[in-house]
Amino acid sequence: MTSDSIPAVICTVDVVLLTLEQATLKVALVRREREPFAQALALPGGYIHAQDDVDAQASAVRVLRDKAGLDSPYLEQLATFTGAVRDPRGWSVAVAYCALVPSAVLAQAAGRVELVAVDALPPLPFDHRQIVDTAVLRVRSKSQYSSLPVHLCAEPFTLPQLQAVYEAVLGEPVNKVSFRRKVDELAMLEPVVGALQTGGAHRPAQLYRVRPAYRRQLSLSARGL
């Protein structure tokens, strides 16, 4: 078999961009500009540019910038989705990534993306529903033993605010004592010196931010919440 007779394989990246809005986990979708599935809501995605992208992650970074107009501080490879029937154009490979950003960051993407609750998705093209479901399962699982949800928080934040984010992602209440113990184990935060949240019915609360070492990678714990 010569190289000319080998069928071309479509190589793309798709990005599951997650955020929290009013304590609801949402995914950012974009309108497809061309066929197949023109005008359908879909994950931000695109072809891998072999001549420009050094690897698949570079492709994902470029796609997010081009389709949503933003850079995600945290971007994690999720899985690879392949097959002859997932794309009507032919046999395809899609490397999927998961990005987490605070909702305030998505203000940069106003008019370019639509936020939809992950539990109320419309029909999606290709196998994008499967990709979203895989990302949500991954995020909820890793939130049990890692610093992952912190990337959904706008800095600075209080520990009760961070706990509320964990609870929203997990979909269940978290014991306050267990949560504080887990935060100490993860050692992912540093106090903002002299910064307190005031004005509420309770005493002023210390404000925190993510330590530089964990802005683009996770802190992991051997035990879950």
Automatic annotation (TrEMBL):
Gene3D superfamilies in UniProt: Nucleoside Triphosphate Pyrophosphohydrolase, Winged helix-like DNA-binding domain superfamily/Winged helix DNA-binding domain
Alphabetized InterPro entries for the sequence: NUDIX_hydrolase-like_dom_sf, WH-like_DNA-bd_sf, WH_DNA-bd_sf, WHD_NrtR
Domain (NrtR DNA-binding winged helix): residue spans on this chain: 150-209
Record's keyword terms, sorted: Hydrolase
Coiled coil: none
Domain of life, source organism: Bacteria
A Pfam family that the UniProt record links to this protein: WHD_NrtR
Protein's UniProt name: NUDIX hydrolase
